[in-house]
Amino acid sequence: MSVASAYDTAAIGPRTEFSRPQRGSGAGAAARRPSHATAFTTLNLNSLLVFAKVAEANSFSEGARRLRIPVSTVSRQVADLEAQLGVRLLERSTRRLRVTDIGEEILEEARVAADIRESILGLVSTRSSSVSGLLRVSVPPCIAKSLIMPLVDAFQSSYPDVRVHMTVSDRSADLATGDFDLLLKVGAIKDSSQISRRILTFRDRLLASPAYLRNRKAPETPRELPGHRLLALSSGEPKTEWSFNHNSHRDGMTLAIEPHLSVNDPASLAEALLAGMGVGNLPSMEVGGLVEKGQLIELMPQWRFRTLDVSVVHASNRHVRRPVQEFIRLAAKLAPALFPSSPGMDGAKRNRNGASTLDEVAVL
């Protein structure tokens, strides 16, 4: 098998041999050229999938990167498809790539073919008893250590043949690039085309150390916070907002602040709070026993940060590989059990049958 063929097989499945029109000229070539009907019944499905990926990426090189095959292989397969169909699918120039009118129509059908292929592969994958391969996950720093690492540990204990590549970053990852199988997101999911499952709902807690409060009056309302040194868990923006709800559920308040220190790592912010550097916010699951042991004090107990959802997000429901399926299932089951009930945390509400009304989602 050639290197190109090996890449084809690894990236988009085993190749199927299809008849192709013979190149040549004159009456002999015309006699050898298959009719359109014959060409259509012997289409190379791999070439259709490659064409669809190139058209969606608007680039041969980007399409090749997403497929993980050489650019030369991508270019050859698209050229072969055009030759077989006898039409131009892409208009190429040094500056841009444009899908032709007939190319747009064929692209729609190519997408349907891709969906069918993915569905078939999904059925085969689901029937397979073994779960193996690579799972690529993007995680924000605020939940990486306390929530996701325990989930990954439990997942790999159950499925030791799955390798996990986890990227911890504040940058918003894009599933469309093909670089990730799953995204763990905090907050609302704005892209309706993505499939998401909420696994946990939590709130931040406002904290300070006894040393910081020794010579200062603890704030009792959000309006008193600007008089304090504020430390914020954020992505490093010079300004941020804290939104609070009163436990009476009647009042809410959003406060724009310019923190003296902003950090995107909860562990680092916890160290700053313990050192008495100021008043700051930590996710409930990062607090651990710091409040119970008296190392930190929770402030403004009648005012609470608004809740945030943690969701697992993937690109499509038509074909979800087994490692992705099993990680989502395990995360939804284990996330609420990772954190025992403690002050400042609310248990998941349950219906009359005892089942969680939040799909086993805990509110911390």
Summarize the structure in words.
With 364 residues, this protein is of the alpha/beta class. The chain folds into three domains: 3-127, Winged helix-like DNA-binding domain superfamily/Winged helix DNA-binding domain (Arc Repressor Mutant, subunit A, Orthogonal Bundle), CATH 1.10.10; 133-202 and 308-337, D-Maltodextrin-Binding Protein, domain 2 (3-Layer(aba) Sandwich), CATH 3.40.190; 204-305, 3-Layer(aba) Sandwich (D-Maltodextrin-Binding Protein, domain 2). The chain has twelve helices and 15 strands. It has a five-stranded mixed β-sheet with strand order 4-3-5-15-6, with helices on one face. The chain has a five-stranded mixed β-sheet with strand order 11-8-12-7-13. It has a three-stranded antiparallel β-sheet with strand order 10-9-14, with no helix packed on it. α8 links the parallel β3 (133-139) and β4. It is elongated. It starts with a helix and ends in a 30-residue tail after the last helix.
